[in-house]
Amino acid sequence: MTKIFIDGSQGTTGLKIYERFAGRDGIELLKIDEDKRKDAQERAKMINASDITFLCLPDAASIEAVSLVENDAVKIIDTSTAHRTNPEWAYGFAELDKAFREKIRTSHRIAVPGCYASGFNAIVYPLVNHGVIKPDYPLTCYAMSGYTGAGKKGIAQYEDPNRDGELDSPRQYALSQEHKHLKEMKAISGLSRIPFFAPHICDYPRGMVVSIPLFADMLDKKMTKADIREVFASHYEGENFIKVRDLGYSESMIGANNFAGRDDMEIEVNGNDERILVTARFDNLGKGASGAAIQCMNIALGLDETTGLHLGE
User: Does residue 309 sit in helix, strand or coil?
Assistant: First the structure.
């Protein structure tokens, strides 16, 4: 039996991870008493008794939790922002590179990517590493997410029957261009320039679309829309969690909520040979959070990566 402790099991991501273990064989969940959830001594006891601890906490609390580890055999899977650009930690997006998957497999410290950063890096990492764009390409990222990405307070705000009417429409935020995911978006993709990022929170529960526009005359080599699509198809060949769609897959619109409840991601290339639009569509609570965390756990345990996860066609 693999002993699992979820530190922060009452938050959105923690609850979703907990739900995924229902009926799963070979897992023993270590449960902390409700009145001791913030007791450092009791948390340390649970962490060090586990084989794997998931941290579903704010950054400062995650850093504190790591400091409580005394058992060298414990593997930590952190869903916070705290360790995503720390080179001593494995970055939990196995499909980006064979080296990423190997580090997840062997490391005792794994950082789960941010939701927006997952879509961004899924697109930009191959573009940089295959020489399609230079690291200083002036990238713009336009994205939208369901309101569950805003956490418990945000969910309560959207589901309040007496809510403000402004919540009926998409709302752009991170207006100061200081969103917490920007650091990993730049670092993991190997960029030298911070991208412009325009995220939106919208009035639906789950799912997100992350879009990157490209100008063909600014690419590092002459490429058509079909050439760009082939870069992604080659990069993600054989991957269960990334589906690169054929050109023309979406005729006119891409819905942001179509992947709700799924743990995979799709990439589409649209536009024309002058202005190319690349999009990643996935569930912000799936491949963007708890699904990615479980995938990392499966890799770390040497299991089939898809165990306990839901992949569509």
Answer: coil
Give DSSP secondary structure letters for 27-90.
Answer: EEEE---GGGTT-HHHHHHHHHH-SEEEE-S-HHHHHHHHHT---TT-EEEE-SSTTTT-TTSE
Helices in 213-304 by DSSP H: which ranges?
225-235, 291-300
Q: How far is CA 144 from the centre of its chain?
A: 14
Instruction: Give the three-class secondary structure for 257.
Output: coil
- What is the distance between the alpha carbons of residues 263 and 255, in angstroms, rounded to a whole number? 16
From residue 188, give the alpha-carbon distance in Å to each of 88, 158, 172, 191. Answer: 13, 32, 24, 8
Of 142, 290, 297, nearest to 212 (Cα)?
Answer: 142
**Each residue of 94-103: pLDDT tens digit?**
999 999 999 9
What angle is formed at CA 151 by the lines to CA 299 and CA 91, rounded to 5 degrees? 30
Q: Which residues contact 270 (CB under 8 A, 6 or more apart)?
A: 225, 247, 250, 276, 277, 278, 279
Active-site residues: which are they? 115
pTM metric for this prediction = 0.96
Report d(CA 310, CA 146) in Å as an integer: 19
Helix/strand number for the chain, H first, E second: 9, 13
Contact in structure between 145 and 200 (CB atoms under 8 Å)? yes
d(CA 67, CA 53): 13
Confidence of residue 36 (pLDDT cuts 50, 70, 90): confident
Contact 80, 59 (CB under 8 A): yes
Return the percentage of the chain with pLDDT > 90, whole number.
92
Find, among 290, 286, 259, the residue nearest to 11 by Cα: 290
Which tokens belong to 1?
């039996």
